[in-house]
Protein backbone atom coordinates (compact mmCIF):
# COMPACT_ATOMS: atom_id res chain seq x y z
CA UNK A 1 0.00 0.00 0.00
CA UNK A 2 1.47 3.35 -0.97
CA UNK A 3 1.62 6.12 1.61
CA UNK A 4 -1.05 7.97 -0.43
CA UNK A 5 -3.64 5.24 0.08
CA UNK A 6 -5.87 5.46 3.14
CA UNK A 7 -5.69 2.72 5.70
CA UNK A 8 -8.87 0.69 5.94
CA UNK A 9 -9.78 -1.29 9.03
CA UNK A 10 -12.78 -3.51 9.42
CA UNK A 11 -14.69 -3.47 12.66
CA UNK A 12 -16.38 -6.54 14.04
CA UNK A 13 -19.97 -6.15 15.22
CA UNK A 14 -19.49 -4.32 18.49
CA UNK A 15 -22.96 -2.92 19.02
CA UNK A 16 -25.17 -5.89 19.57
CA UNK A 17 -27.42 -4.48 16.85
CA UNK A 18 -29.37 -6.82 14.68
CA UNK A 19 -27.02 -7.55 11.74
CA UNK A 20 -29.74 -6.40 9.36
CA UNK A 21 -29.19 -2.92 10.73
CA UNK A 22 -25.53 -3.26 11.25
CA UNK A 23 -24.40 -4.73 7.96
CA UNK A 24 -25.22 -1.71 5.83
CA UNK A 25 -23.07 0.38 8.12
CA UNK A 26 -20.18 -1.99 7.81
CA UNK A 27 -20.74 -2.16 4.11
CA UNK A 28 -19.36 1.31 3.95
CA UNK A 29 -16.25 0.04 5.68
CA UNK A 30 -15.24 3.03 7.60
CA UNK A 31 -11.75 3.84 6.66
CA UNK A 32 -9.56 6.29 8.32
CA UNK A 33 -6.75 8.37 7.16
CA UNK A 34 -5.16 11.54 8.26
CA UNK A 35 -6.41 13.66 5.40
CA UNK A 36 -10.01 14.61 4.68
CA UNK A 37 -11.39 12.97 1.57
CA UNK A 38 -11.23 15.19 -1.50
CA UNK A 39 -14.93 15.39 -2.32
CA UNK A 40 -16.68 15.13 0.99
CA UNK A 41 -16.83 17.51 3.91
CA UNK A 42 -14.61 16.50 6.76
CA UNK A 43 -16.20 13.69 8.64
CA UNK A 44 -16.76 15.38 11.93
CA UNK A 45 -20.21 16.81 11.89
CA UNK A 46 -22.43 14.20 10.42
CA UNK A 47 -22.13 10.71 9.17
CA UNK A 48 -22.90 10.65 5.49
CA UNK A 49 -23.99 7.33 4.10
CA UNK A 50 -23.94 6.22 0.47
CA UNK A 51 -26.17 5.06 -0.93
CA UNK A 52 -28.93 5.94 1.54
CA UNK A 53 -30.27 2.68 2.83
CA UNK A 54 -33.61 2.11 4.63
CA UNK A 55 -32.09 0.42 7.65
CA UNK A 56 -29.44 3.07 8.26
CA UNK A 57 -31.73 5.09 10.45
CA UNK A 58 -30.28 7.94 12.41
CA UNK A 59 -30.77 5.95 15.59
CA UNK A 60 -28.66 3.06 14.34
CA UNK A 61 -26.00 5.35 13.04
CA UNK A 62 -25.90 7.22 16.32
CA UNK A 63 -25.58 3.97 18.29
CA UNK A 64 -22.89 2.74 16.01
CA UNK A 65 -20.91 5.97 16.19
CA UNK A 66 -21.40 6.26 19.91
CA UNK A 67 -19.96 2.77 20.32
CA UNK A 68 -16.97 3.51 18.13
CA UNK A 69 -16.37 6.69 20.00
CA UNK A 70 -16.60 5.18 23.44
CA UNK A 71 -14.45 2.24 22.46
CA UNK A 72 -11.89 4.68 21.10
CA UNK A 73 -11.44 2.50 18.04
CA UNK A 74 -11.78 5.47 15.79
CA UNK A 75 -11.45 9.05 16.88
CA UNK A 76 -14.65 10.54 15.45
CA UNK A 77 -12.90 13.29 13.62
CA UNK A 78 -10.71 10.97 11.64
CA UNK A 79 -13.39 8.68 10.29
CA UNK A 80 -14.22 9.01 6.67
CA UNK A 81 -15.89 6.97 4.03
CA UNK A 82 -14.31 4.11 2.20
CA UNK A 83 -12.68 4.82 -1.13
CA UNK A 84 -15.24 2.59 -2.76
CA UNK A 85 -18.30 4.46 -1.57
CA UNK A 86 -16.59 7.80 -1.86
CA UNK A 87 -15.71 7.30 -5.49
CA UNK A 88 -19.31 6.91 -6.57
CA UNK A 89 -20.52 10.14 -5.08
CA UNK A 90 -20.22 13.84 -5.42
CA UNK A 91 -20.04 16.64 -2.90
CA UNK A 92 -23.59 17.68 -3.79
CA UNK A 93 -25.11 14.34 -2.95
CA UNK A 94 -23.17 14.43 0.31
CA UNK A 95 -25.22 17.40 1.46
CA UNK A 96 -28.51 15.65 0.76
CA UNK A 97 -27.93 12.70 3.03
CA UNK A 98 -26.47 14.23 6.13
CA UNK A 99 -27.63 12.12 9.03
CA UNK A 100 -29.44 13.61 11.99
CA UNK A 101 -27.30 13.05 15.08
CA UNK A 102 -29.85 14.18 17.64
CA UNK A 103 -30.43 10.61 18.87
CA UNK A 104 -27.02 10.34 20.54
CA UNK A 105 -27.00 8.63 23.91
CA UNK A 106 -26.29 11.27 26.53
CA UNK A 107 -24.13 12.05 28.32
CA UNK A 108 -21.27 11.37 25.94
CA UNK A 109 -18.33 10.11 27.97
CA UNK A 110 -15.02 11.73 27.10
CA UNK A 111 -12.38 9.17 28.06
CA UNK A 112 -9.45 9.77 30.40
CA UNK A 113 -6.77 8.89 27.93
CA UNK A 114 -5.55 11.19 25.21
CA UNK A 115 -7.63 11.12 22.06
CA UNK A 116 -5.83 11.73 18.84
CA UNK A 117 -7.37 15.10 18.12
CA UNK A 118 -5.39 17.83 16.46
CA UNK A 119 -5.19 21.27 18.06
CA UNK A 120 -3.69 22.47 14.79
CA UNK A 121 -7.05 21.99 13.03
CA UNK A 122 -8.81 24.39 15.39
CA UNK A 123 -9.37 28.08 14.94
CA UNK A 124 -8.22 30.35 17.77
CA UNK A 125 -6.58 33.75 18.20
CA UNK A 126 -2.84 33.61 17.65
CA UNK A 127 -2.16 34.95 21.15
CA UNK A 128 -3.31 31.57 22.50
CA UNK A 129 -0.56 29.67 20.73
CA UNK A 130 0.96 27.14 23.17
CA UNK A 131 -1.78 27.66 25.78
CA UNK A 132 -3.57 24.38 25.07
CA UNK A 133 -2.28 21.14 26.44
CA UNK A 134 -4.66 19.27 24.14
CA UNK A 135 -7.99 19.45 22.38
CA UNK A 136 -10.64 17.78 24.51
CA UNK A 137 -13.85 18.30 22.52
CA UNK A 138 -13.95 19.56 18.94
CA UNK A 139 -16.70 21.95 17.91
CA UNK A 140 -18.50 19.42 15.75
CA UNK A 141 -18.95 17.06 18.67
CA UNK A 142 -20.21 19.95 20.79
CA UNK A 143 -22.73 20.81 18.07
CA UNK A 144 -24.03 17.23 17.90
CA UNK A 145 -24.46 17.03 21.64
CA UNK A 146 -26.20 20.40 21.90
CA UNK A 147 -28.61 19.22 19.22
CA UNK A 148 -29.28 16.00 21.12
CA UNK A 149 -29.86 17.92 24.36
CA UNK A 150 -32.30 20.23 22.60
CA UNK A 151 -34.21 17.22 21.37
CA UNK A 152 -34.55 15.89 24.93
CA UNK A 153 -35.70 19.29 26.14
CA UNK A 154 -38.30 19.62 23.39
CA UNK A 155 -39.74 16.29 24.30
CA UNK A 156 -39.79 17.01 28.05
CA UNK A 157 -41.09 20.59 27.82
CA UNK A 158 -43.63 19.93 25.09
CA UNK A 159 -46.80 21.89 25.80
CA UNK A 160 -45.07 24.22 28.28
CA UNK A 161 -43.10 27.42 27.91
CA UNK A 162 -40.01 27.22 30.15
CA UNK A 163 -37.77 30.12 31.13
CA UNK A 164 -34.21 29.32 30.17
CA UNK A 165 -31.84 31.00 32.59
CA UNK A 166 -28.32 31.39 31.24
CA UNK A 167 -25.68 31.26 33.96
CA UNK A 168 -23.20 33.90 32.80
CA UNK A 169 -20.69 34.20 31.44
CA UNK A 170 -19.47 30.70 30.71
CA UNK A 171 -22.73 29.17 29.49
CA UNK A 172 -23.33 31.88 26.91
CA UNK A 173 -22.31 30.00 23.68
CA UNK A 174 -24.01 26.81 24.86
CA UNK A 175 -27.15 28.78 25.70
CA UNK A 176 -27.19 30.47 22.32
CA UNK A 177 -26.82 27.22 20.38
CA UNK A 178 -29.38 25.45 22.54
CA UNK A 179 -31.88 28.26 21.91
CA UNK A 180 -31.21 28.00 18.16
CA UNK A 181 -32.16 24.33 18.20
CA UNK A 182 -35.27 24.91 20.30
CA UNK A 183 -36.38 27.55 17.83
CA UNK A 184 -35.84 25.14 14.97
CA UNK A 185 -38.10 22.69 16.80
CA UNK A 186 -40.71 25.43 17.38
CA UNK A 187 -40.38 25.00 21.15
CA UNK A 188 -41.36 28.27 22.83
CA UNK A 189 -39.30 29.64 25.73
CA UNK A 190 -38.39 32.84 27.53
CA UNK A 191 -34.87 33.84 28.42
CA UNK A 192 -33.20 35.28 31.51
CA UNK A 193 -29.60 35.77 32.53
CA UNK A 194 -27.90 35.50 35.88
CA UNK A 195 -24.32 36.27 36.81
CA UNK A 196 -22.64 33.92 39.25
CA UNK A 197 -19.00 33.44 40.13
CA UNK A 198 -17.12 31.13 42.47
CA UNK A 199 -13.81 30.56 40.73
CA UNK A 200 -10.45 32.21 41.15
CA UNK A 201 -7.85 30.92 38.72
CA UNK A 202 -8.28 27.17 38.37
CA UNK A 203 -9.97 26.45 41.69
CA UNK A 204 -13.36 27.04 43.21
CA UNK A 205 -13.36 29.43 46.19
CA UNK A 206 -16.55 27.85 47.50
CA UNK A 207 -17.77 31.40 47.94
CA UNK A 208 -20.60 31.76 45.45
CA UNK A 209 -21.51 35.31 44.43
CA UNK A 210 -24.89 35.77 42.74
CA UNK A 211 -24.37 39.09 41.03
CA UNK A 212 -27.95 39.42 39.81
CA UNK A 213 -29.22 40.41 36.40
CA UNK A 214 -32.26 38.16 36.79
CA UNK A 215 -35.77 39.58 36.66
CA UNK A 216 -37.32 37.61 39.51
CA UNK A 217 -40.86 38.56 38.54
CA UNK A 218 -40.31 37.02 35.16
CA UNK A 219 -39.39 33.60 36.56
CA UNK A 220 -42.04 33.58 39.30
CA UNK A 221 -44.14 30.43 39.25
CA UNK A 222 -42.59 29.23 35.96
CA UNK A 223 -40.75 26.12 34.75
CA UNK A 224 -37.12 27.21 35.10
CA UNK A 225 -34.30 25.57 33.20
CA UNK A 226 -30.87 26.68 34.40
CA UNK A 227 -28.35 26.49 31.58
CA UNK A 228 -24.82 25.93 32.90
CA UNK A 229 -21.49 25.44 31.16
CA UNK A 230 -19.98 22.95 33.60
CA UNK A 231 -20.63 21.22 36.90
CA UNK A 232 -17.43 20.70 38.82
CA UNK A 233 -17.98 20.44 42.58
CA UNK A 234 -21.63 21.47 42.17
CA UNK A 235 -21.14 24.29 44.69
CA UNK A 236 -22.46 27.02 42.37
CA UNK A 237 -25.73 25.26 41.64
CA UNK A 238 -26.16 24.09 45.21
CA UNK A 239 -26.35 27.81 46.13
CA UNK A 240 -28.24 29.02 43.10
CA UNK A 241 -31.09 26.51 43.11
CA UNK A 242 -32.25 27.12 46.71
CA UNK A 243 -31.87 30.86 46.07
CA UNK A 244 -34.24 30.66 43.09
CA UNK A 245 -36.60 28.28 44.85
CA UNK A 246 -36.92 30.72 47.72
CA UNK A 247 -37.17 33.87 45.61
CA UNK A 248 -39.23 32.67 42.67
CA UNK A 249 -41.33 29.69 43.85
CA UNK A 250 -40.98 28.08 40.43
CA UNK A 251 -43.29 25.33 39.16
CA UNK A 252 -40.14 23.31 38.49
CA UNK A 253 -36.42 23.91 38.33
CA UNK A 254 -34.02 21.76 36.31
CA UNK A 255 -30.45 22.09 35.11
CA UNK A 256 -29.00 21.56 31.64
CA UNK A 257 -25.22 21.51 31.71
CA UNK A 258 -22.99 21.00 28.72
CA UNK A 259 -20.24 19.38 30.79
CA UNK A 260 -19.83 17.54 34.03
CA UNK A 261 -16.46 16.65 35.52
CA UNK A 262 -15.95 13.13 36.79
CA UNK A 263 -14.56 13.70 40.29
CA UNK A 264 -13.81 11.16 43.02
CA UNK A 265 -16.41 12.87 45.25
CA UNK A 266 -20.04 13.18 44.11
CA UNK A 267 -21.01 16.70 43.07
CA UNK A 268 -23.15 18.72 45.50
CA UNK A 269 -25.76 19.10 42.80
CA UNK A 270 -26.81 16.94 39.88
CA UNK A 271 -28.24 18.01 36.54
CA UNK A 272 -31.09 16.31 34.71
CA UNK A 273 -29.57 17.16 31.31
CA UNK A 274 -25.84 16.54 30.83
CA UNK A 275 -24.06 16.76 27.47
CA UNK A 276 -20.62 15.33 28.25
CA UNK A 277 -18.86 13.88 31.24
CA UNK A 278 -15.18 14.73 31.19
CA UNK A 279 -12.03 13.81 33.11
CA UNK A 280 -10.94 16.07 35.95
CA UNK A 281 -8.90 18.73 34.15
CA UNK A 282 -9.16 22.48 34.00
CA UNK A 283 -10.66 23.22 30.61
CA UNK A 284 -11.11 26.34 28.54
CA UNK A 285 -12.91 27.45 25.40
CA UNK A 286 -16.50 27.67 24.14
CA UNK A 287 -17.32 30.18 26.86
CA UNK A 288 -15.17 28.63 29.59
CA UNK A 289 -12.43 30.94 30.78
CA UNK A 290 -9.26 31.06 32.75
CA UNK A 291 -8.99 34.54 34.24
CA UNK A 292 -11.37 35.83 31.55
CA UNK A 293 -9.35 34.51 28.60
CA UNK A 294 -10.20 31.71 26.10
CA UNK A 295 -13.98 32.21 26.00
CA UNK A 296 -13.54 33.07 22.32
CA UNK A 297 -12.82 29.64 20.88
CA UNK A 298 -15.25 27.18 19.30
CA UNK A 299 -13.60 24.04 20.68
CA UNK A 300 -12.86 22.95 24.25
CA UNK A 301 -9.25 22.44 25.33
CA UNK A 302 -7.28 21.42 28.38
CA UNK A 303 -5.17 24.37 29.46
CA UNK A 304 -1.38 24.02 29.35
CA UNK A 305 1.13 25.21 31.94
CA UNK A 306 2.06 28.01 29.56
CA UNK A 307 -1.60 29.03 29.48
CA UNK A 308 -1.85 29.03 33.27
CA UNK A 309 1.34 31.07 33.62
CA UNK A 310 0.38 33.55 30.90
CA UNK A 311 0.10 37.18 32.00
CA UNK A 312 -3.17 38.37 30.41
CA UNK A 313 -2.33 42.05 31.07
CA UNK A 314 0.26 41.87 28.29
CA UNK A 315 -2.60 41.65 25.77
CA UNK A 316 -4.18 45.02 26.52
P1 LIG B 1 -18.68 24.31 40.68
O1 LIG B 1 -19.39 25.31 41.51
O2 LIG B 1 -17.46 23.74 41.37
O3 LIG B 1 -19.58 23.23 40.16
O4 LIG B 1 -18.08 25.07 39.44
C1 LIG B 1 -18.92 25.59 38.47
C2 LIG B 1 -18.41 26.85 37.85
O5 LIG B 1 -17.00 26.96 37.98
C3 LIG B 1 -18.69 26.84 36.37
O6 LIG B 1 -19.89 27.54 36.09
C4 LIG B 1 -17.49 27.50 35.77
O7 LIG B 1 -17.69 28.89 35.68
C5 LIG B 1 -16.38 27.25 36.75
N1 LIG B 1 -15.55 26.08 36.36
C6 LIG B 1 -15.50 24.85 36.92
N2 LIG B 1 -14.60 24.06 36.31
C7 LIG B 1 -14.07 24.80 35.32
C8 LIG B 1 -13.09 24.53 34.30
O8 LIG B 1 -12.52 23.44 34.18
N3 LIG B 1 -12.81 25.56 33.47
C9 LIG B 1 -13.41 26.78 33.53
N4 LIG B 1 -14.33 27.07 34.46
C10 LIG B 1 -14.67 26.08 35.35
Automatic annotation (TrEMBL):
UniProt similarity note: Belongs to the purine/pyrimidine phosphoribosyltransferase family.
Organism: Nitzschia inconspicua
The keyword Glycosyltransferase is assigned to this record: yes
Subcellular location field: Cytoplasm
InterPro entries per record: HGPRT, Hxn_phspho_trans, PRTase_dom
Transferase recorded as keyword: yes
GO cellular-component term (any): cytosol
Primary location: cytoplasm
Database matches in Pfam families: Pribosyltran (PF00156)
UniProt GO molecular function: hypoxanthine phosphoribosyltransferase activity; magnesium ion binding; nucleotide binding
Pathway: Purine metabolism; IMP biosynthesis via salvage pathway; IMP from hypoxanthine: step 1/1
Cofactor(s), by name: Mg(2+)
Protein's recorded name: hypoxanthine phosphoribosyltransferase
Biological process according to GO: GMP salvage; guanine salvage; hypoxanthine metabolic process; IMP salvage; purine ribonucleoside salvage
Enzyme Commission numbers on file: 2.4.2.8
Record keywords, A-Z: Cytoplasm, Glycosyltransferase, Magnesium, Metal-binding, Nucleotide-binding, Purine salvage, Transferase
Domain of life of the native organism: Eukaryota
Annotated ranges, domain Phosphoribosyltransferase: 141-290
Amino acid sequence: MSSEEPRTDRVSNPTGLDPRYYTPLLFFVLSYNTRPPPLLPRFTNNLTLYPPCPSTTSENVARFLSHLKNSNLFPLNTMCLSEQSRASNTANSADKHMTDMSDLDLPVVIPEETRSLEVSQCLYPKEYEGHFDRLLIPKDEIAQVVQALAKQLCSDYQGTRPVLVCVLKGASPFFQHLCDHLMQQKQGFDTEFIRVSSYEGTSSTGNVQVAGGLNLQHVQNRHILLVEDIIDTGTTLSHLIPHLQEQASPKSIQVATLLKKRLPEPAKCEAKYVGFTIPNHFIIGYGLDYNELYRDTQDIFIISKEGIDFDATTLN
